[in-house]
Design goal:
The protein has 7 helices and 12 strands. By secondary structure, it is of the alpha+beta class.
Length: about 260
C-alpha cells in the first residue's frame, strides 16, 4: 500500500510577483503537507524547468490551485506564539509559578520556581484574577517566596517553549509532559524524558497536547506506543482516496501502558 496523504496545494499564484516566489510556496506546501518526503532540490529544479505540471510526478493527487484576484489573507498574530516562559498552577486559592523555563523572559527577570503570585498588574491574588491579568498582558508582578514579597516587571513575551518539556510532582507522584508538535525526533525526546521519570515510579502521567499543531504521523504513533496496551491501535489515517489510508498499531505494548494517563 502506498503510504501517502492527499497533498492539496493552494499557492496564491495571482498574488506572487515572480515565478521563483510561486515555486517557494509550492516547496513550502510540500514540506508541510505531503506525507512522503521529497527531495526539495530535485523538486525545485523540476519546477523551474517544467513548471507546476511536474507536481503530478511527485504526488499523483497534488495540484496547483490559483487564488481569485484581490484575495486577502490575514497575517497570523505572531504574539500568540510567544510566552514569558512560566508554567503556572494552583496553590490553594492563589496562582503559583510551578516551573520557569530556562532562557525565557521570566527566567531572565528573576522569577523562581514555586513562588506564589500575590498579584499581577494590580489584580487581586486569586488564581483566576492573576491568570486573567497575565492573559491580558500584565507585566508587573508581586511574588512571594522564602525571602518575603518582592515586585518585578516582566519583559514582553518573546519566548518559544521547546516542543517537549516536563516536570515531576513528588507529592502526587505525577509526571507532566508537554508535547507542542510531533516533529522529527520528538518521540525520542519523550521516551528519554519518561525514562528519567520512571526511576521515581510515577503513579500517573499527564500528557498535555493542548494547542499541539500536529506533525509527522510516525512520530505521534511512536509517542502513543509508549502508553498503548498490547495489540491496541494507536490511530489510523483514513481517506476517501484509495491508497491514502494507513494504520498505526501499538505492537507489543508500551512500557507505561499500565499507568493512569490523562
Amino acid at each position: 500500500m502506498k503510504r501517502t496523504l492527499l497533498c492539496a496545494l493552494a499557492a496564491f499564484a495571482c498574488a506572487c510577483s515572480t515565478e521563483s516566489r510561486t515555486d517557494e510556496k509550492i516547496l513550502e506546501a510540500f514540506e508541510k503537507h505531503s506525507y512522503e518526503l521529497h527531495d526539495s532540490g530535485e523538486l525545485a529544479a523540476e519546477l523551474k524547468a517544467r513548471g507546476p505540471g511536474v507536481l503530478r510526478f511527485f504526488d499523483p493527487r497534488a495540484a496547483l490551485l490559483g487564488a481569485p484576484r484581490g484575495l486577502k489573507v490575514k497575517a497570523p498574530r505572531e504574539g500568540r506564539l510567544y510566552s514569558t516562559g512560566m508554567l503556572l498552577g494552583p496553590c490553594g486559592t492563589s496562582a503559583c509559578v510551578i516551573r520557569v523555563l530556562r532562557g525565557s523572559p521570566a527566567a531572565n527577570a528573576g522569577v523562581k520556581d514555586y513562588e506564589r503570585i500575590v498579584s499581577a498588574g494590580g489584580s487581586g491574588g486569586a488564581a483566576g484574577e492573576v491568570l486573567d491579568a497575565l492573559g491580558k498582558g500584565a507585566s508587573g508582578l508581586v511574588l512571594a517566596g522564602r525571602g518575603g514579597e518582592r515586585a518585578l516587571s516582566l519583559p514582553a513575551p518573546s519566548f518559544r517553549a521547546p516542543p517537549v518539556f516536563g516536570l515531576y510532582d513528588p507529592a502526587t507522584r505525577t509526571a507532566y509532559l508537554r508535547v507542542a508538535v510531533f516533529s522529527k525526533g520528538v518521540a525520542a525526546q519523550v521516551a528519554k524524558g519518561l525514562a528519567a521519570f520512571k526511576a521515581a515510579d510515577p503513579r500517573a502521567i499527564v500528557l498535555d497536547l493542548r494547542y499541539s499543531i500536529g506533525g509527522v504521523p510516525e512520530e505521534a504513533a511512536a509517542v502513543f506506543r509508549l502508553f498503548a496496551g498490547r495489540g491496541a491501535e494507536c490511530f489510523a489515517i483514513r481517506s476517501r482516496h484509495k491508497g491514502y489510508s494507513v494504520d498505526f498499531p501499538a505492537a507489543d505494548g508500551g512500557p507505561f501502558s499500565g499507568r493512569p494517563l490523562a
